[in-house]
Amino acid sequence: MYKTARARIAVGLTAMAMVLLLLGPSAAALETDVGENDLFAEIVEFVKDRDPVLRSQRAVMEAAEAMDTIELDDDAVPGLTESSLRVQKFESVSQVQQAQQTYTQVERDLVSALLANLTEILSLRNAVENQKELLSLLEDRLEPTERQVEAGIVDADALWELSERIIDVQTEIDDSNSQLTVLKRETAFNYGGEDWRALLELVEQFD
Description:
rod-shaped
């Protein structure tokens, strides 16, 4: 029970550390001792770099900012008068602001959904670890229980119940591992785009 609670606390601290990281460098510095924080950050940056919506908004901002750097000169852009260029420079400022707003909102939604997936992956991983520990304890009891049954100390039903419990726990481990595999692949497919295999390799490092 203690180890289960400790695992849940670890997941919570890791998620909190990631939130702090997203809020800014000064906030992230408060949680530098969280071991998986760097991996979380690497995955988030990987996904942000490849998200098509964020890419398009970055392109809009770059194009608008490039227009804003052009000097107001009749010869600055062939085919554009100074007045036309002035209008386009004014419009570029608005485009940058709109693109920044869209970028910020999409980034928050994307990171929030990704963080939820990664936290669930960690929770499943910890569940598997706890189940394996329980399985080991049950298996350690198997031989002593067999001896007790042979000696007539306990009823044979005790051995039967223990064997059933071992089978149940092993089934739970197999089910959790299957869920973990599916969730990792879904995360890679949904957020990695053409580079989903590279993202899957990063996600697999949580093991």
